[in-house]
């Protein structure tokens, strides 16, 4: 691993090399992870996998809410490329509901708006969208030029809210607001908290009420999680923000617990809700069989009722009857194989569980835009230096709600649970879970990825659209862990079965042996591979 790291760094100029070196570690002491460079600017000229703040805000966190009208204030490309390409699924659940996600709305900013200002255009767009659809709420997203020319989207939103009598709010999530999507997550969390959470106090009749935070229903994952929790008798008020309606979000402060899937994109919300309303949060992972079982048991332990604990065990036993034969079958071919994962801000960690269910090891992994706590664990939070790029983003000051704050677990109960090994408000991070001497690489570059393939030939790489075909041209199958290609769900028990079968198929096929660059004359090698029995 040390040698690989050296070879990756070799070609960089001195200053770049010094910076990249901090972001590339050999995981020598997993239990006490070394400090990694993260959430810092990408060196210009490096081919990165990262996206922008607008993508993190509109594309990731708020865009999936299906009955809000989402209007992108900006040039058409921003709206177009954030239009369902993420495969965030949604469907209405009551006949009176509407699903607007099949529309992509934009002010289609042109040169004259850049010169003379685009506020008028935005007002018009809101009016037009309202006349056409009469939605409950409209949300406006600023793109780079909006910030540069100084359009005040918030005053336009306030004015139109007053005029139309529906909830209208804006997000200053200009693409350049941070070093990656991550800044957009924080901006989105603040906006959802200020403009939606707590607006509807209708009581929810259910015994075990929770929210699932940081689950966006890619490929239908949230539906599988919902299916399992329902079987256990646990009611989800809101999934933030997969397959979710505006009303559910306005009402989700009624839950007695927040479980957090993607820590990176939504930890702010979990903290703010706890401070204002009093429900605790903890981290779960429904990706992977072991992760799913552990998460279900943890929720049952939190509510601490025998009926729930028993039911959870019944559901696990029932589901495992389907899972077990599939694992036994695929393991014959997947055991001992190697994976490498470079994805976003949580999946590079979560999917290691699915691979280990199949007997595979993750030899290298990294996030695109996560922070040090996602690598090293939440205990490093106090030691993270806030730089100018992060200082840009507002930290909301939250206090307990004078009427609605309700401590769901008394201090004593919490302490008692913690003494029995239960962890609240924590996340142990990726590095603690990875094996000794594996490679951890933040914001991996195209060059580093190619070196990794050349030197380690992983059996499969989990990544995204920007490098999928480069990887496959090098003869390694690539599973898109963002969009799932055309597959999914991969969460929960049924999702794991889908994943095991797909990965087995991808790494067992001999098609990869037949792919060779056309300039390499290897006709003998190719026909030998083709003649091998399947
Ligand atoms: Fe969280 Fe996500 Fe991810 Fe993410 Fe994303 Fe995504 Fe991702 Mo793509 S919220 S951090 S900003 S789990 S869109 S659903 S797949 S990079 S690893
Ligand atoms: C985003 C969205 C993305 C991109 C996926 C990819 C997603 O970052 O803006 O690069 O393949 O999941 O759709 O992360």
Could you explain how this protein is built, in words?
The protein has a domain at 53-178: Rossmann fold (3-Layer(aba) Sandwich), CATH 3.40.50.1980. Helix content is 46%, strand content 12%. The chain has helices spanning 2-9, 14-23, 53-62, 76-81, 111-116, 119-133, 144-149, 153-164, 181-195, 221-232, 246-251, 263-277, 289-303, 306-334, 347-357, 372-376, 388-391, 411-419, 430-433, 446-456, 465-473, 492-508, 511-514, 523-531; strands at 24-26, 68-73, 105-106, 137-142, 167-171, 208-215, 234-241, 257-260, 281-283, 338-342, 361-366, 439-441, 460-463, 478-480. The strands form 3 sheets. It has a 6-stranded mixed β-sheet with strand order 1-12-11-10-13-14, sandwiched between helices. The protein has a 4-stranded parallel β-sheet with strand order 3-2-4-5, with helices on both faces. A 4-stranded parallel β-sheet has the order 7-6-8-9, with helices on both faces. It is globular and about 70 Å long. The mean pLDDT is 96. Bound molecules: FE-MO-S cluster and 3-hydroxy-3-carboxy-adipic acid. 3-hydroxy-3-carboxy-adipic acid (HCA) binds at residues 51, 55, 59, 85-86, 181, 344, 464-466, 480, 482-483. 3-hydroxy-3-carboxy-adipic acid is lined by residues 51, 55, 59, 85-86, 181, 344, 464-466, 480, 482-483.
Give me the side-by-side strand order of the main sheet.
1-12-11-10-13-14
**Nearest-integer average pLDDT:** 96
Bound molecules: FE-MO-S cluster, 3-hydroxy-3-carboxy-adipic acid
Q: Mind telling me which CATH architecture of the domain at 53-178 this is?
A: 3-Layer(aba) Sandwich
